[in-house]
Amino acid sequence: MVKVGEYDLPDDLYYHSDHAWARVESDGTVTVGMNDFYQKSAGDTTYIDLPFEGDEVEQGETCGKIQSAKWVGKFVSPVSGEIIAVNEELEDDCTL
Predict the structure, then answer these.
(1) Which secondary structure element, helix H or strand E, spans residue 6, and what is its range?
(2) Residue-averaged pLDDT of the chain
(3) Taking the model in full, what pTM does it have?
(4) Phi-psi region at 83: left, alpha or beta (left = phi > 0; alpha = psi -120 to 50)
(5) DSSP letter assigned to residue 13
(6) The domain spanning residue 25 has which CATH number?
């Protein structure tokens, strides 16, 4: 793990310039998320709009929206591909 200031950057992730990350799982699927800088800058997240299973996403394109007390922002996909699963817990608790 690399620590830059107050931000944690796990070294098993691939980082996109729009503050998204991607991790290749052992089965070849890819898990994506927001990096620590994005999460801490956004503050408390109040709403997340996620893509649906079966949606196609393109690297560098917006595939979701994130709203916090501070602002509304976009989530940019760090990879291209088909969404095969979505963390549905985020719909009920977007602070995860």
Answers:
(1) none
(2) 88
(3) 0.81
(4) beta
(5) S
(6) 2.40.50.100
